[in-house]
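Key idea: predict the complex, not the pieces.
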Amino acid sequence: MSGAQGGMAMHDAGQDVTVTADGRTIGGVVMEMRNITLRFGGVVAIKDISFDIREGEIRAIIGPNGAGKSSMLNVISGFYHPQEGEVIYRGSKRPPMKPFQVARQGIARTFQNIALFEGMTVLDNVMTGRLNHMKATILDQAIWWGKAQREEVENRRKAEEVIDFLEIQNIRKTPVGRLPYGLKKRVELARALVAEPKILLLDEPMAGMNVEEKEDMSRFILDVNDEFGTTIVLIEHDMGVVMDLSDRVVVMDYGKKIGDGTPDEVRRNQEVIDAYLGVAHD
Amino acid sequence: MAQTDAPAGVPNSVPALLARNVANFGSKPAYREKEFGIWQSWSWAEAAEEIEAIALGLLALGVDRGDHVAIIGRNRPALYWSMVAAQKVGAVPVPLYQDAVAEEMAYVLEHCFARFVICGDQEQVDKVLEVQERVPQIEHIIYQDSRGLRKYDHSKLHSLTSVQAEGRGAQERLGQELAARQAELDFNSTCVMLYTSGTTGKPKGVVLSNRNIIMTAKASSEFDGLRADDEVLAYLPMAWVGDFIFSIGQAYWTGFCVNCPESAETMMTDLREIGPTYYFAPPRVFETLLTQVMIRMEDAGAFKRKMFHHFLEHAKTVGPQLLDGKQVGLVDRLKYALGNFLVIGPLKNTLGLTRIRVGYTAGEAIGPEIFDFYRALGINLKQLYGQTEASVFITQQPDHEVRPDTVGVPSPGVELRIAENGEVFYRSPGVFVEYYKNSEATASTKDPEGWVATGDAGFIEEGTGHLRIIDRAKDVGKMADGSLFAPKYVENKLKFFPNILEAVVFGNGRDFCTAFINIDLTAVGNWAERNNIAYGSYQELAGHERVLAMIQSHVEEVNRSVAADEMLSGCQVHRFLVLHKELDADDGELTRTRKVRRRIIEEKFADLIDALYSGKAQQYTETEVTYEDGRKGKISATLELRDAMVVGAAAETRVAAE
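Result:
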């Protein structure tokens, strides 16, 4: 809707809280990437990149194919451990962690290639997103008593709220394998949301979608950000979408950061234009 | 003129009925809505409390007596409560079609001068805000679902829960005022104002009084023996008079429970979960359902398919007879019971129609095959004939007297009269008060004695007293040679084919009849799949050689059946084309209740009609279309125009004319 205005937000270094033109509040820095370098053998996927993510903003990472965007997202989600540099989360350095530990810190994600349980229903898939909120032991669950029961009710309630929010009530009991691509993407978003994340990582949420599905998805992303105040980091190829949705954009090319700023600033950045128009690198 | 008091024992307003229901069965469910995957329910006492809170909140916002309060959204309990709350404070609820585009909405909001609008969600709020410049009198917009509205300017925007909270807080201050306003309501005060979709011209605001609604609800509930333990599913547009009568009029009169689906897409699942006992659906819903069942049976295994068809055939002869209380032999009864156990029962259960005691269809003619199918399943499906101006009921079919070709006998309290030109007139306690701010139209529709012109031509059948409708009176015309032209009669025959969604027949004042056909994408698409026909778009499928051939065979079959009727044999379709787009209410081609707007179609597709009459084999055309969000675009196509075989005398005239 008014995402374009969202992009107009000004970020003053000295000031911790900003209010965007469309009335959203963006807080201080919640996560900071400091001089991240990631190598696979001799290949340098990410080279000395630093940027920050502020609370409540929609932060996009863009770049041509192979620029290292997904690697960057995997660093944030704890799937890859960078050889150099550090991730500062809520003011302190994050030690190397397993992905599930990162998830417990309130970071959820969706995948570029959908990673759902195809044979399970939408509801069951969404419920799996509550795993980190389940504390009852296997024994409790087996005899279905006390805590296990309370938890299940609470988890189902949360799952249903998200199903309602993303308007997928009509496929609640449908096996995921039978759904079209655009809906699967929405189910994946539901599973990430149900974990009640502080930061939501979206890896190409709109890849392979038609215009209408993209519009729907953009709307949901904005609504999630607006309704729950979730910080969103997304990778996306569709420039129109990125410029409309995001508050700030990091541009990567060949593992390096070549631009960082509001969509307008990025659009005018000569290096970015070159990268996208394909100027020869020497 | 009329008495302000209701007959003894009849509460004189909807809020008074509510109070009676709370006293009689306060703890019985009044409303249910599926939300978050669970059916939430409210008893009559709880609903009354919610309504009271909304009413107090509306008072606090400054709603005056006689104000119009617009209500826009899908069927949800809170919106029904809002309507009753508006009545309680002496205002008039005006429900609007939620799928109307902003432009249409602006006209109604402007016409009724609504100062308050209650919206279901952001989509509706956006539309109201979009046209705000045209309707500056709107003071407050109230919404139910807050999603996406957080960052909107809230100076005149309120959530329904906050309005209710405000109202509960103001109970002491405003309680007396509310009681006083409710006490002022009588049998003549306005109950609701509903805008007719209008096949011609701008919508008209039909003013219905408490007398209209309550007397009609009482009579029709008694006619069908509706009870407090009945269940209905509220899924038809709230702006439509039928929904108002079923979900408020009859529900409040008998005290039955109104169930609201989770969303439009989950309607079929919700229908199955609730299993309504009293059900209304326009013919189109029954048609779609039947088409889906048949398509799924085509895809089933051979054994299942054979069993299905075998028992269905048998049920088609026996089922309706059993429903009509006729004698049926023991063997047939046993076989029907077996079929019921193996096929019919499970099918009804899948469709959610197991518990139906009374089912109605109306609005359009229903195909005899479709009608017979549901009757064969043992569903007591009946037809009724009604209008907004009559608070729905004019005629309806009593149990055991059900036929596809009539619309029944006059409803209790309704008098019928057929004018010399064949137009049907009626007079009843349900006859509307007036068209709002349009005394001219009121006078031309309703005469001083209270007789109302329906605009439909029909006759009362000798012997049975059933009414039969031929066509819209103004659509019935004469062909060039003087023979009778009744387009609807032919169109209905065409539409009874599952492959044909819509048909428009032309021929008034012409030498012969021609037709536009819309294919049914579900049925034809499935047929294409089974016959290995590839297509990329609706337009491509509609123009496919084999689709045209199939439609041609349908048209020719209709011609043979039309030829059998001497009076109407001139109405055979000589030439036809299959339209490249679906006729759509957003483009003004259909009304919101999906009736064909003949004049508009004639103007819009004038080039195609000319081509049909000039004998061309092909015609290039460009058409403007409106997307759901109100944007406009153009589509173009070259259509093939085909000749259809005609039968009998008509065939000769055609030759002579050429």
